[in-house]
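My current task is to audit a protein record that another person submitted. I need someone to confirm that the token line plausibly describes how this chain folds. Take the sequence as given and treat only the tokens as open to question. This is what I was given:
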Amino acid sequence: MAEAVRVAVAADPLTVPVLRRFRAVEVCDGSVITLPAALAPVWAGCGTAPVPTAAALKLLVRMDLCRGLLRGPVLADGRTHDRAAAQELAPIPVGGLHIGDLGFFALDQLASWNRSGRFWLSRLKRGTVVAGPDGTRWDLPVWLAAHCPRQVAVPIRLGAHHRLRCRLLAERVPATVAAARRAKLQAAAQREGQAVSAEEWTLAAWTVLVTNCAPEQLSLAEGLALEQARWQVELLFKRWKSLGQVDEWRSAQPWRILCEVYVKLLVLVLQHWLLVVGCWANADRSLWRGVRTLQRRGHSLAAAWAWGAWSAAVAEAVAAVARCRIDKRKSQPSTYQVLLAASPVLAQATYRDLLLLDLPPPVVATVPRSADPRADLAAIIAHVAAWGALDDTTPALAVLLENAAEILPPSVAAHLAPIREEVRTTILPEVDYVARFQQVIAAVERGDWAAVPVIAAALPPDYPGLAPLVQRPPTPA
């Protein structure tokens, strides 16, 4: 396991603006597997947990949202604090952003990251002293009530002694969310035989974050979106437990159970590598479907390993995973939709790729591309409209506009509403094979042999004069 977790498998970085501004955006969290009591000498449990356990194994990972790189899992006693377990992981890269829950909140660590050029985003821990830029201490609930009717982002000093220069990002939550938080606080206080403090009760009405990122690096909306994206590491553990069943077994023998847990963890790390290679670079990937796709190929992959056909089997599995996409959502946007919507102006650079989802390669290959994606937008619409209908008679422009309505942030998709209305009242031309054939000729003349077969794929194979064009001449010796 120690050897496996040192292997670094990463995808090309996602084209999500807020993620590309940092060298890495790593979310960190842990999860616990309860083990039979006989294994307590190996992995000690936690007697003070809500459900005390004699033996438990803690898994701690850090995952890069931009490239999928997985650091860990680190294995530790169930009673080990998250911060202590995290010391076994490789350091956050300089220029990287760390996002963790309150278990990782420590002013000494935040100060160290400040000095070393690393960035952090965290919820504010209860009882931490907050002061204004001039050093005047704030009564935070009172200050928020006076200055935060909805949202606020201000510079602050954090800690009574550390006085870290950072920013406070706060947003008032809906009443239903505040009520749910307070109910959770009451339940936790009852378990511990304590009362909920007035500060906690009042602050439940806000989401309060702190960060050392400058405003141009991270806006308030982007900070809130990244805090929501932190749950991606929780979903990793959910896949490992729900689909990988790493915390389930049928044996009653403790040592056999422990060996099964170790083997499953190794398989799950390998599974994550295949997901990273196969689909991480797709903003609309579905990791849940990717896992199910790999599980259906489990026996064939094992057989391929035994028979020396591993490379071919892995290539087929990776290709299948690459086709695993999420359904387009309106009421519950996916993580990448939330991240894009948080920075709609900067998200212009991603319009081109997102608008072209579900369009065939011949259409995508001939799209106008320049250094200014915003200027490209009008040219792309004109290009796709001129393409006409796809092979199933669906207007290509209709597919583009559907993407605009369901994938792009609403503030962006609204700009295309007049064009969508025009499409509804206009009969698009039939497929223009002559125009496509001319595009093949143009690609041949400029020597773009990579584009020739892609464009030619949209024409019938027996189209007059096509065959000689797609045959690339031999390279001179």
Summary: Strands lie at 25-35, 55-64, 70-77, 97-100, 119-123, 130-131, 151-158, 164-172, 206-211. Residues 344-424 form one domain.
